[in-house]
Amino acid sequence: MAHPLKAKLVGNNRQAAANRESRVTPQWPSYQGTSQFVGTSASGKVTVYVDPTLGAPALQNAHDLVMDADRVVAANDALFGTPGGSVDVVVFALGGATDGTGGADHMGCDYTSGAAIELCASFGNSARVSALFEAELSECSMGGNLCGVSTGEALSRWCAAVIGSNALSDFATAPQWAQDGMPDYVNQTDPTDQHADSTGCGMAFLSWLMSQGYGLDQIAQAMGTSGDAGTLAQLYANLTADAASNAWPSFLAAAEALSNGITNDDPFGGAAQPAQLAHLAPWTVELAGKVFSVILADIAAGKQEHQIVASVRAAMVGARSAKHAGAAVCQTRSRRLRPPARAA
Questions:
Q1: 61 vs 40, 65, 225, CA distance in Å?
Q2: Is the pTM of this model over 0.85?
């Protein structure tokens, strides 16, 4: 009789194995291949899969994302001033690419319709995968607004640039906007996220605002309040208390005065300003206190590790539900991120 050697499952390991066996593969925006489960981040908020046919390099990308995901999530939550939800991610050769240039995709700008995220593999450079992840995650945090229009696309790319350490510099669109004569997308919002000129104008405009000391967190939260109909001119007015009519002429004059022109998405050096991620929203401190209290109470009650994790997740989900009450309804469709050369 055969007696195969198996690891004995105890405590949380037994629960983890049961969860893996009962896991339902998400419905991805476009990926139709096998989804191999790789792991879940320590917080339980990010579950990562990979296309197993890509071998070790893609698996390394996926493993690295599991380890980095909670850092990205925490930074993203701080930018938007609200805790996000859980997401599933698959790493594969999106658009046939394995260098990250296939971009990323999901179907909506909230944690319900947009929680299944596709990321292009980037062999040997997992930082690009993390940056792509933030680009899509930030759109989920827009609460049904912004993603799908030019302002939201610029914001999501800036979130990826700051949290992803500019790992997607080849996705730059501001130079294209400059080459095309600097059309005005400050006083109007383009109802698409696929136009390099309108996205590029937004990238340069946010660079300009940040260079004047406005943090990306301030910008993200102000844009979220304005929603799809908001313009960059209105954002300027909300942040500066100056008239919205002054936004375009002031920005255009500054752009035309740049000695080196516009050669990247941060022509004004906004990302170099102090502490783009330094501000902690009030909910962050409050939630940290709640989580700490839950952990202490469960330890005092003698609960096992997996029970403590479940309690922490419940506390975080409760906080997210309260923050997102009354959020806008997001239209479900592809939100594909691509570099300009690959744009449809």
A1: 14, 6, 35
A2: no
CATH node for 35-144: 3.30.2010.30
Is 237 in contact with 243 (CB distance < 8 Å)? Answer: yes
- For residue 173 the two structure tokens come to 């669109």
305-323 vs 11-21: helix crossing angle, rounded to 10: 60
Question: Distance (Å, rounded) from C-alpha 166 to C-alpha 127?
Answer: 9
Tell me the C-alpha distance between 51 and 38, whole Å.
Answer: 10
> What is the SS3 assignment for 88?
strand
- 135 in helix, strand or coil? helix
Pairing of strands 116-120, 87-92: parallel
User: Within 10 Å of residue 248's Cβ, how many Cβ atoms?
Assistant: 20
Per the CB < 8 A criterion, the answer to whether 92 and 54 are in contact is yes
**CA nearest neighbour of 338 among 137, 177, 135, 176:** 135
181, two tokens: 């004569």
Cβ-in-10-Å burial (0-12, 13-18, 19+) of 32 comes to exposed
Give 12-56 pLDDT, tens digit per residue: 444 445 455 557 899 999 999 999 999 999 999 999 999 999 999
Q: Average of pLDDT values for 129-145?
A: 94
CA-nearest of 167, 154, 168 to 216 is 154
Reported as a single tens digit per residue, the pLDDT across 265-300 is: 999 999 987 645 544 444 454 555 665 666 677 677
Tell me the chain's radius of gyration from C-alpha atoms: 21
Amino acid (1-letter code) at residue 38: V
First-last CA distance in the chain? 60
3-state secondary structure of 105: strand
- Report domain extents, the chain: 35-144, 145-270+336-340
> Residue 105, exposed/middle/buried by CB under 10 A (0-12, 13-18, 19+)?
buried
Calpha distance 152→205 (Å, rounded): 13
| Nearest CA among 266, 262, 189, 261 for reference residue 223 | 189
